[in-house]
Amino acid sequence: MTVRSIHESMAQPCTSTAASTRDASAVPVTAAADKPAETEPDRQLITRIEHTLANYLARRIDDATAIHPVLAEAAGTLTEFVLGGGKRIRPTFAWWGWRGAGGDPHDVNVLQAVSALELVQASALVHDDLIDASDTRRGRPTLHVEFAGRHERHSWRGASQRFGAAAAILLGDLALAWADDMFNHAELSDGQRRRIRPVWAGMRTDMLGGQYLDSWCQASGADTVAAALRVNRFKTAAYTVERPLQLGAALAGAPRELVTAYRRFGVDIGTAFQLRDDLLGVFGDPQVTGKPVGDDLREGKRTVLMALAIQTARTRRRTAEAEVLTSALGDPELDAEGVDRVRNILCELGASAEVERYIEQLTKCGLAALASAEVAQPAAWKLAELALAATRRRH
Fold this sequence. Notes:
single chain
């Protein structure tokens, strides 16, 4: 299957129409000397996001303490999870969406609103780890494993795994509730609230809908490229890049043309981001990614990478290879040797190289969409830099 035919499977040959009208090279992303100057608040963005999150979560732990110390302890574990790692990609894209539309870098209320996205991400990760039965995240036990371990160490009643699952469900829900609270309590104008409300609501539906589609694909065995791309579109692209950018634009009252360009950029870069994640799930270094290699295979993830390989094997009548691939998906006992077999087949069939080409094409299309709009500096440069970092990363 070619890159063009992959796009056609979603009936959108690169989401950006800007690719044919303006070259992505219009966005300066290579020479450090060309980089526009950033304000001090911009340069300290990640530190400011983490400081904002830490202060907010400390207040919410006080609320939990008033209910019961054991809830405060659990909320503390959630707080450690939120603050203990992550690249802060979603609030970063939202912030630069705001700045690209002319937003003030000193606005602490907007900073609070976009920082709430990190709690949405925490909710998604906690629930995703439970759904996928993942043991580790960022090199540490996942929350359901952590709480199952507490249950076992204290010799509490009932099944340890059930308690771990219950804790993860509730703490994931708590993270999402606190995200809403943090977002809604930011002191914004009436106009800002009116503009951002549908974006925030749409983002949550996209994320949860995409997660359900992912679970449905695994359960039903849907293994087409189109099905995998649709999961990527809603589970990852929408709430990782597209919606955060749209949120920043809405906060700034951006014109429709800029919002449209942001969303095209966001879908392309967000999809490429997930495709990179799919490759890392099979070919990545666990010491760098923080997750065991092959976990996506054991969990039965119907990724574009695997869908493309299976389809190619069937088209070429490579029955043995197709059987190895389909058998590996969802096999919890898949060992290192089995993962190596899958890797070799993915390379032999050209699937991994094809996904790399697809990532490159999506990145170019996304950058072209960004270049087609009037994006204020330094945001135009920064967004292009973030796009390259997200799609070429190794962790």
